[in-house]
Design a protein that fits this description.
Helix content: 25-40%
Strand content: 15-25%
CATH architecture of the largest domain: 3-Layer(aba) Sandwich
Bound molecules: zinc ion
Radius of gyration: 25 Å
Distance between the termini: 15 Å
Low-confidence stretches: 1-15
Number of strands: 19
Number of domains: 3
Mean pLDDT: 93
CATH topology of the largest domain: Aminopeptidase
Number of helices: 14
Strand order of the largest sheet: 1-10-12-11-13-16-14-15
Largest sheet: 8 strands, mixed
Length: about 450
């Protein structure tokens, strides 16, 4: 792993493929996804074309803790037409137009009745809202308030050609295997229809992070394993947890990813425990990169971190975001579209994630070979090596002193980085030199 850190966390943005992640966002944006169904499958297949991900199908009715896998929603067509047959609202034009899990209907309805099935945002009159009704057995349309205000006919024809029937819930799973079976989970909800930041940004960043880790694994440079889940919110995570309960002992923690492509600064919602290895690695990665991050306390709302942190599961999983869900005006509206995102913002999120994972992957505890006093660095050629560096030589020497003092089997490199304020990469470099000089050896896997 040294190669990741040799020159510090200078993982510069890749200038060679400037629009790769935005291409993913744009490709996936039009698809009408939901928590089940063909839109979700098409999305997972798209991701599986880019990384060797398995797509898992779990039949409707399968018990999942206190839930069961729901019936599958298939939508073929949905529109509101005037009596002349002009389609005024059509899901083919925007996938947000349909209330998710709408039941079939084909009727002429008076405007007053249609009004009960129409969802708008009077405060944001040009935007289409995102609405779901997974278990309500109703139908509905979402449209801009301005459009609805313009629809003044006495009656309209409404058509929803759909069914809700036994099928399956689908999720994608990719395990990137490192040397150790200990693994970290990286999970992104993949069920929203045409919404870009929430959460196609995470599909785009997740694909690139997975590719990066696959490359490292292939080069033999990955210590731990990383499991990627692209799954419908809540039911996907619950389904994976229920099917993998016996395996959860290997999971050290993880991150849910959401809203990674807007212009806002990063936020990290801590794990429920707080102070876990993941919480520390995130803080150190941002500190060392000189990048701002706001640490948010854990709340049992938001994304699947609340499933992972539930009392019977207890995995320390936090959530990395730029602007947090619910805090930006575009959230859950048609304004959360690809224009709201930028390649640079996605790249910044990817860079931080690579650094976080590099820290998680290189973290280790050491013990001194002979811990009595301070070893003679000069005799081992180390003094010259660490003080002779043109830039930051003194700093590396300080980091060496920290490593030699905290190599007590209790402090991991992450703990040392936290306690010393020294960059993680520099402590890792010092630890590598000390190990090569036989001054320290690895304790049990951190
Ligand atoms: Zn959402």
């Amino acid at each position: 792993m040294d190669s990741l850190h040799q020159d510090g966390p200078a993982l510069t943005p890749a200038a060679t493929e400037p629009s790769r992640m935005m291409d993913v966002v744009r490709d996936l944006y039009p698809i009408c996804r939901s928590i089940t169904g063909e839109g979700l499958r098409a999305t997972l297949r798209y991701i599986a074309d880019r990384v060797p991900m398995e797509i898992v199908e779990v039949p409707s009715g399968t018990p999942i803790f206190d839930w069961t896998v729901p019936d599958e929603w298939t939508l073929r067509e949905a529109y509101i037409a005037d009596m002349a047959g002009n389609r005024l609202v059509d899901v083919r034009r925007h996938s947000l137009h349909i209330l998710q899990y709408s039941v079939p209907v084909d009727r002429v309805v008076p405007r007053a009745e249609l009004a009960k099935h129409v969802h708008t945002l009077p405060d944001q009159p040009d935007l289409i809202p995102y609405r779901t009704a997974y278990f309500a057995r109703t139908w509905g349309f979402c449209l801009s308030h301005r459009q609805w205000e313009s629809m003044r006919d006495a009656e309209y024809r409404v058509v929803v050609d759909s069914d809700i029937a036994p099928g399956a819930v689908s999720y994608g799973e990719l395990l990137v295997r490192g040397r150790s079976e200990a693994e970290y989970l990286i999970s992104a909800h993949s069920c929203h229809p045409s919404l870009a930041n929430d959460n196609l940004s995470s599909a785009a960043v997740g694909i690139e992070l997975a590719r990066h880790l696959l490359d490292l694994a292939e080069a033999g440079l990955l210590n731990r394993s990383y499991r990627f889940l692209f799954a419908p919110g809540m039911i996907g995570a619950l389904t994976w947890l229920a099917r993998n309960e016996s395996h959860l002992g290997r999971v050290r923690g993880g991150l849910t990813l959401s809203c990674l492509g807007d212009a806002g600064p990063h936020h990290f919602k801590r794990t429920k425990a707080g102070g876990s290895t993941v919480d520390k690695a995130v803080a150190i990665a941002f500190r060392d990169a000189g990048a701002p991050v706001t640490m948010l306390p854990f709340t049992p709302f938001g994304y699947d971190e609340r499933q992972y942190n539930s009392p019977g599961i207890n995995l320390p999983v936090g959530c990395l975001m730029r602007s947090p869900n619910g805090t930006f005006a575009e959230y859950h509206t048609s304004a959360d579209n690809p224009d709201f995102l930028s390649e640079a913002a996605l790249q910044g999120s990817l860079d931080r994630l690579k650094e976080i994972v590099a820290i998680l992957d290189a973290d280790a505890r050491y013990v001194r070979t002979d811990g009595r006093g301070e070893p003679q660095l000069g005799r081992r050629g180390l003094y010259r090596q660490i003080s002779g560096q043109a830039a930051g030589g003194g700093s590396l020497q300080d980091s060496m002193m920290w490593v030699l003092n905290l190599a007590d089997g209790d402090h991991s490199l992450i703990d040392m980085a936290e306690r010393s304020g020294k960059p993680f990469a520099e402590l890792l470099r010092a630890a590598t030199l000390a190990r090569e000089a036989d001054l320290i050896r690895a304790a049990a896997d951190a």
